[in-house]
Structure formats: C-alpha cells, structure tokens
Amino acid sequence: METQKRDTVIFKRPFKPGYDMLPAKFQNEVQAEIMIDSGFGLNSFIGKKFGRVPIRPHEKVVIERVFKKFNLDPWTGKYLS
Known about the structure:
Blueprint: H1 16-21, H2 24-38, H3 42-49, H4 57-68
C-alpha cells in the first residue's frame, strides 16, 4: 500500500523581505495572524521567516493571504501593483 505525505514541503524560502517592508505598527499583527492561522508557535514563525524551517503548502497560502492585505509579495518584499 502506497503512503502519501500529508504535508509536502514546498520550499525553504524566507518571507523576511516582505515582513521587513511592513510598517512596524503592523508587524506584530501580521505575526499573530500567521501564527494563529497556520497553527505554529513563535520559534517556528522565526525559523520560517528566515527560511531555516520549510514552509508547508497550507502555510504558504496563509502567508501570501496575509501579505496581500498590505499589497506586498512576502518572498521579494516588492509591492504587487
């Protein structure tokens, strides 16, 4: 019987460029929303932000959704439009 992995690793790419482009007053709010919606703690958030911990598919969706509210690409730190 073939087994499938529930969460396949997408990539180990930091979202720090996008995070650094956020105004300081929104960084804690973004951090909390990503942590709550993705279901991981502070250590995982920091590791994923710096690209040391792999980002899973469902986490990628959450990160991109949160940054889209600020019109930012989380991976490059560039504005979307």
